[in-house]
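dumping the sequnces here before i forget
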Amino acid sequence: MKHILLDVNVILDLWLERGEYQLAEKLIEDAEEKGVLLWVSASSIPIIEYVFIQQLKKEGADSEEAREICRKLFELLFEYARPLSNFGFEQPALLTRAVDIEDAQIALSMNCLHGEKCIVTSDITFDNLGIVVCLTVADALKWIDEKDSNPKENSQIPFIDLKAQQDSIRPQLEKNIYKVLHHGRYILGPEVKELEKRLCEYTRAKHSIGVSSGTDALLMVLMAWDIGPGDAVFTTPFTFIATAEVIQLLGATPVFVDIDPRTFNIDPVKLELAIEALRKNDANIYPLPRAGTSNSQLTPKAIIPVDLFGLPADYDPIMEIAGRYGLKVLSDSAQGLGSEYKGKKSGTLGHATATSFFPAKPLGCYGDGGAVFTNDDELAEILESIRVHGKGKDKYDNIRIGLNARLHTMQAAVLLAKLDIFPEELEIKQKVASQYTEQIRQQAPHLATPYVPKGLKSAWAQYSVLAQSNEERNAIQKALKEAGIPSMVYYPKPLHMQTAFSNLGYEKDDFPVSVGTSARIFSLPMHGYLKQVEIQRITQNITKNLLSS
Amino acid sequence: MQIKAVYEDGIIKPKTPLKLKKTQVEVTVIIPDDCLEKEKPEASESLRQKIRKILGKYSKRGTASLAGQDKKLWHEHLVRKYNR
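..and the predicted 3d for all of it:
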């Protein structure tokens, strides 16, 4: 992402139609069109205000009239350019470094921004402290275009660009964080309540409970449902460990069910086979745990479908099966917030939904965080109790064993700023996914691009591609790495092959689809700030490798 | 007759089941104003037009840029303000 900071004289020229004001106007319009962020240093504002008002007074305006016009012009300016903070902690160092402290303050305010940046000024003596390049308006116009059409050949493309996202919401982020610092209600402060309310509005779930992580969100629901030793919980082995870890942590037994080869989500047909196999204690129907608690002593209690990579699991048959066998459904939508299944948003698809706000998730905070969604009033009440050490009427009245699992107020403040742009980011990611799919299908049609069944919308937590073989996957990843393009494997080893679950006695071939997928899958950079040229560079590097191998 | 119904994702469902003689019936629906997305304004004015509108009679120009003079004016102001 690129940033332009407009100096005082550029804004005054623009308002007073002086000098290169037409170019300044073009610069602002071009920047908006090409996704370059415009900024005005907070320290410039009083100077602009004073000089402009003086100018208008010279032309006959009275003070009140000039002030009102100036206020409206600032309002308009802030529709295009964001005010950039000057931090107090940076000021003492300025005294030793700056020749012109006003200029230096402006230059220093750009320190917090990531990516490429410049100050646009007509002042040739501008004191930039040597930390940021200064350009004239005319040169800045070229700078936008040059940089846009000429990305460096081997520059690193971020797998997920949290820095660009941070810059795009910086003023709101600073405001929200400042508010928490000011009111000081760090534990379950007003931001947590506000976030929960807004997430209910967004997902249309009746209840949203902010918790300390996606893992705790899963754990708390199972605790609330009283899942424990002797209980079986059905889930997929092709997921992050947290999904099954929480089952085993409570002494219950994970019973794995293989995935659909196209969606990578739990296969409902196999799910029913697994339930039947367990009920009849017959591993010939479907592979069952071979060790630990005897299968005949296990009671089927719940299903945890995972919305892998942001794509919802197939909830219609899952809920139908759950209804028939009297099972609860906990949707593991750690990656799926924002996704949709037949018009319903993630958060309303199971009896309860757990999501994660881990930084890399579709809606991520700056640390750990998570939430549970449910329409069940009783469950919501129990979850609120578990979240605070099993509290009753207050935290010193403990009616059950609970956890310390509250969402931090500071993280809620971060999430509120991110939630503002969340729907827009999802739309952009949808476009990125479509571009990837189109280009991969054209250039390498034998690679399997993500399959999104009709009526479903993915949150695109990951864009994952299936190579034809393990060797091809590894070769593609190697070529991408050499070209400065990161790729990841989610997940290299299914859970039934992990040492942590060796107590279940599963064998590698019990879940062939998961095993085969883990050997061939790889994920490409996916975020709302990927440029078209970057997508092209990524897909071309995949093709280039295929042609040379 | 008037009935209560819920609109969700393009489907209007009566709150209590209805038996109708036809499979297709035209109905009149009242949607609360606060539920409607505001329409986007038509093609917006250029930045210049917006600035001129705010400036009103003070909009004119074509003079040279005065970066040096602006700075001088500001500094003179500061001297006056703090050297009283």
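Chain B touches chain A through 27 residues (CB under 8 Å).
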